[in-house]
Amino acid sequence: MAKRIFHLGAVVLATLGAGCAQTPKPRSTMPAMNVGLSTTERTCLARAMYFEARRNSEDGMLAVGTVVQNRLRSGRYGSSYCDVVGQKGQFAPGVLTRPMQGEAAERAGRVADQIASGRRHPAVRNAMFFHTAGLRFPYPNMRYVLIAGGNAFYEKRSVISLATAAENARSRAIALAYAKTDGLGAGRPIMLASLTRNVAMEDTSRRR
Question: Which residues 6+ apart lie within 8 Å of 50 measured at CB?
Answer without folding.
Answer: 61, 100, 104, 105, 108
